[in-house]
Amino acid sequence: MMIFCFMFEPSCLHSSLFPKRAFFRACLLSAVFTASCSEEGGMDSLLNAAAGNDQNVQVGDEVTLDGGGSSDSQGNPFEFSWRFISKPGSSSSQLDNSTSEEATFVPDAPGKYRIELAISNASQSLDTVSIFAFKVITVAGSYENIIPGSNVGVRTFKSALNSLFATCEFSEIGGIEAKKIARYGEGSWHAMGCGLEEGSIYGMAEYEGELYVTGDFEEIGCIPANNIAKWDGSAWHALGNGLTGGENPFGYALAVFDGELYAGGQFTMAGNVNAVNIAKWDGSEWSAVGSIEDGSVRVLQVYKQKLYAGGYFTEVNGADIRYITAYDGNDWSALGATGHLELKSVGAVRKMAVLNDVLYIAGNFSVSNEEISELSTWDGTQFSDFGRPFTLHPGNSIRDLKVIAGVLYIGGEFSSPVAATPAKNILQWDGASWGVLDEGIAGTVLSIETFNGSIYIGGEFETAGGSPAENISIWSED
Predict the structure, then answer these.
(1) d(CA 173, CA 157)
(2) Which of 47, 54, 62, 458 has its CA 20 to 30 A from that of 243?
(3) 309 beta partners
(4) Listed residue (210, 296, 302) closest to 250, CA to CA
(5) Distance of CA 288 to CAs 264, 303, 334, Å?
(6) Long-range own/partner contacts, residues 261-264 (CB < 8 A, 24 or more apart)
(7) SS3 sequence, the chain?
(8) At 7, phi and psi to the nearest 5?
(9) Rounded to whole angstroms, how far apart are CA atoms 136 and 140?
(10) Are the CB atoms for 80 and 95 separated by under 8 Å?
(11) How far apart are CA 407 and CA 435, in angstroms?
């Protein structure tokens, strides 16, 4: 615009073609555009705050926050300001050098520290960084590795009826023929009738002195049974017409709540009753308990006198409730204000367990609309993303949560704990410290269960604690 103004001097303009009034309007417009440019002639500078990468650290270690990646597009100077957005409730940590490019602090309590960096001159830019602080200890103990036979994986262990039950896709275990489900007791493995010829078992639970199993099958123990059945210690029995209806129906999760057995999965009928993905069995007949729709239920957990259902669903009784819901015996509901955790369409809830009156939730969900977390907690009022000292690789996940003797065991596919050890795929959490179990499991941990005072680990792995194993190992603490 300035070039236009200088090229057309008043003496060069014919008044009939470009009157002075139009000329001054053009120059005024030029001045307006000039005012929106920097003194150097470019556009306004753009600020870009960069708070650095998230960090996993141990409690007591000094943390350096580096804003050195921040910039101004015109090279203009700017000021730094760091502040805590959130930190563990018991923490009294303070930021040092909070107005410098590099700030420091010492985390004094385990948990997540969320910190904001603001850079400013004529404008402002913000960025955040998360610091996860942990106490990590090495747990003294050892693995007793079991070789139950070739190609014997374990999807699920269940301790019930004074026995340990195992299920996966095996056809023999411990030298006996047993199709996809077997019982361990009296020092040896035992078949359970004809077992399961076709299909899979996903969930098991003890109810009124019998073992209930659910999965994807039409026959078990040589009797017709649609996706759910019970074992009375010597024979299999169907539960009416079982779980049916819809496309590819299956059962996945079982839990006992208020004296009745609840089954979750993907189905539209339980027995002869319309029931969408959730139903209850009182020992003789099925009842509907609302509808959990647009997906499937993958886990059931009792917590604070409510039954929690988690999975891949997006609707409950017609309401927009995603991936987790609570049942008080009358109605299903959302969990209320989500605080730092929002269960979004990026993932689902797969496992739950209760430790120290807190519900632990594993899955794949959005945190603060930005991050992805695999392990979070719910205290009955709000969610909290408390962090974890391990790395989940793409496609990997937490496969099991199990509370044993006041300790939460976490199994799955993960590595790189904060502690400088090669431990993989299994950890302990006691509410304050993470425990590393020797070198861990070289493979995938799918199930953790206690039986006769020992901790059984099942999955798909070839070594445990650095020694050869075949998908089953027993962990004992010193």
Answers:
(1) 14
(2) 458
(3) 300, 325
(4) 296
(5) 11, 21, 19
(6) 261/205, 261/207, 261/212, 262/289, 262/300, 262/307, 263/214, 263/228, 264/292, 264/296, 264/297, 264/298, 264/299, 264/300, 264/309, 264/311
(7) CHHHHHHCCHHHCCCCCCCHHHHHHHHHHHHHHHHCCCCCCCCCCCEECCCCCCEEEECCCCEEEECCCCEECCCCCCEEEEEEEECCCCCCCCCECCCCCEEEECCCCCEEEEEEEEEECCCEEEEEEEEEEECEEEECEEEEEECCCCCCCCCEEEEECCEEEEECCCCEECCEECCCEEEEECCEEEECCCCCCCCEEEEEEEECCEEEEEEECCEECCEECCCEEEECCCCEEECCCCEECCCCCEEEEEEEECCEEEEEEECCEECCEECECEEEECCCCEEECCEEECCCEEEEEEECCEEEEEECCCEECCECCCCEEEECCCCEECCCCCCCECCCCCCCEEEEEEECCEEEEEEEEEECCCEEEEEEEECCCCEECCCCCCECCCCCCEEEEEEECCEEEEEECCECCCCCCCCECEEEECCCCEEEECCEEEEEEEEEEEECCEEEEEEEEEEECCEECCCEEEEEEC
(8) -70, -30
(9) 13
(10) no
(11) 10
Instruction: Give the position of tokens 């976490």.
Output: 410
* Count of residues making up the chain: 478
What pTM was estimated for this model as a whole?
0.82
DSSP β-ladder status, 250-257 and 228-231: unpaired
For strand 79-86 and strand 111-120, is the pairing parallel, antiparallel, or unpaired?
antiparallel
Q: Which two tokens stand for residue 203?
A: 């969930």
Identify the bridge partners of residue 133 per DSSP, sorted by sequence position.
57, 111
Q: What is the per-residue pLDDT for 293?
A: 95
Tokens coding 341: 């955790």
Splitting the chain (478 residues) into consecutive groups of 10 residues, what average pLDDT does each group show? 34 34 38 36 76 90 97 95 92 97 95 94 94 88 86 92 96 94 95 96 98 98 98 97 97 98 98 98 97 96 97 92 93 71 64 96 67 79 73 72 97 72 84 88 95 95 91 93
Q: Are 81 and 98 in contact (CB under 8 A)?
A: yes
Residue 448's Cβ-count burial label (10 Å; 0-12, 13-18, 19+) is buried
Task: List C-alpha distances in Å: 457 to 35, 180, 299, 336, 454.
Answer: 70, 17, 20, 36, 10
Which residue from 380, 339, 344 is spatially nearest to 364, judged by alpha carbons? 344
